[in-house]
Design goal:
Distance between the termini: 41 Å
Largest sheet: 8 strands, parallel, barrel
Number of helices: 17
Strand order of the largest sheet: 3-6-7-8-9-10-11-12
């Protein structure tokens, strides 16, 4: 569907007109006028949800006395306080996030507030053990960790990969779906939905379940951003414009994950950032991505995995003085997305589902360092390049600082353990070998 036609159908243009003319703001200095979080009403039940949701997959981490990575609870409490004070009321977590630590940290921070001040979304993340005993225990443990006796929004986590067979194994053959439906009747689950990662035919299957009445989804969580809108690979992932249109015509509320593509749309290549700054000099690059998602009216909530106070304040500013994108601005973002596809980036969102690697490789760290060099313009491409020697040295030194030598790409043995865990279906060993070869060529000056 063409973007211009879709906007006319969905009513986003009318929304833009209703919100008034375009203005400008500076980042440290807030816009004039009162700040008021953009709210969306769930048409299914009347819940008033903050359009900006807090994704709890990237809580800040520190080292404990034993050198283990643990969540910085004090920092989490501070961010949750700020979030609630500024109107954020939707918090999304999972038993799988941050190696099992996310729910507990969220529970500690949120339970300091009255239960009606926030909405909890969590998931049945039974990837490794889909037995009924283990799955039900995971479900029950989430209540304890989150210090609650009901879930506002509960998701079947990351369905799509493996299609019908994987879905049946995780939720049908083990009796989990009937169990969850009974839990919903009992009021312990208010809304039941799923998060999706997969191809078009897999998504169509879950929509067929809905259309036939076999499964009544209350909401769906999808990956949506201005790159994946029309530039998903079409094999492992499906374009978000298709997902949105299918959910919109069925009246299903949509929650958005990865609006920044794991941070990549907050650190776009220099040439793209320059175009954005020319148009909105006082706005952040990331604000374009958030405004894109929230411009579409079927979107109930846009999740952001904020790791510290800076992006939290910035995002509150974006949604506190929200301005939908115009049709012309949407076309501009499509042009920027097309340009981004020309860069040799790894489509990693830094979700860390692939970790820990059994061979100790820092998979997301390697990918994030590589992507950052490309987007920052510090990527050595050939020996004929201007400042090649300087760029070569900068990459190799920064790589050693970012990723310990024993955890770097060249240690991958192609065991494939990571492949089934990646929601982006990245061919991880292949990409690690590509980066390892790039580094080897860089060291030998044969680019």
């Amino acid at each position: 569907m063409k973007r211009r036609d879709f906007i006319k159908i969905s009513g986003a243009a009318a929304l833009a007109a209703a919100c008034g003319p375009k203005g400008s703001s500076s980042q440290p200095t807030k816009e004039e006028g009162p700040e008021e979080m953009l709210m969306r009403e769930n048409p299914k039940n009347g819940d008033r949800i903050s359009a900006l949701g807090f994704g709890c997959m990237r809580w800040p981490m520190v080292k404990d006395a034993n050198g283990k990575d643990v969540i910085d609870q004090e920092a989490v409490n501070e961010m949750v306080d700020y979030a609630i004070e500024h109107g954020i009321n939707y918090f999304d977590t999972s038993p799988a996030y941050l190696q099992g630590q996310s729910e507990k940290a969220a529970g500690i921070a949120l339970s300091r507030y009255p239960r009606d001040k926030y909405f909890i979304a969590t998931k049945l993340s039974n990837f490794s053990d889909a037995s009924p005993e283990a799955s039900i225990q995971m479900y029950k443990d989430s209540f304890k960790q989150l210090k609650t006796d009901y879930f506002d929004y509960y998701l079947l986590h990351s369905i799509g990969r493996g299609g019908k067979d994987a879905f049946n194994k995780r939720y049908v053959d083990n009796g989990l779906l009937p169990f969850l439906l009974e839990e919903k009747k009992a009021g312990r689950i208010r809304n039941l939905g799923f998060s999706f990662h997969g191809a078009k035919h897999e998504f169509d299957y879950f929509m067929e379940l809905f259309d036939s009445g076999e499964m009544i989804w209350d909401f769906v969580q999808i990956e949506m951003n201005y790159v994946d809108w029309t530039h998903a690979d079409g094999v492992r992932n499906v374009n978000a414009d298709y997902l949105y249109a299918e959910l919109d015509k069925r009246g299903l509320p949509i929650v958005i994950m990865e609006p920044l593509l794991g941070g990549r749309l907050a650190r776009v290549p220099e040439s793209i950032a320059r175009h954005m700054k020319e148009r909105e000099p006082d706005k952040s690059v990331a604000s374009w991505a958030f405004r894109f998602c929230a411009t579409y009216p079927r979107v109930l909530c846009v999740l952001s995995g904020m790791t510290n106070m800076d992006p939290l304040r910035e995002n509150v500013e974006t949604f506190g003085h929200f301005k939908p994108l115009t049709e012309e601005e949407l076309e501009f973002l499509e042009q920027m997305a097309t340009q981004m596809m020309e860069y040799p980036l790894v489509n990693c969102t830094d979700c860390k589902y692939c970790m820990p690697c059994p061979w100790g490789i820092d998979i997301p760290g390697t990918f994030q360092h590589y992507n950052r060099a490309i987007t920052d313009g510090t990527y050595a491409q050939s020996t004929a390049q201007k400042d090649y020697a300087k760029l070569k040295k900068a990459y190799l030194v920064s790589y050693d600082r970012a990723v310990a030598t024993v955890r770097q790409a060249d240690h991958c043995i192609n065991c494939g353990e990571c492949l089934s865990h990646c929601p982006q279906s990245i061919p991880i060993p292949t990409q690690l070998k590509r980066i390892a070869k790039y580094i080897d060529d860089l060291k030998q000056d044969i680019l």
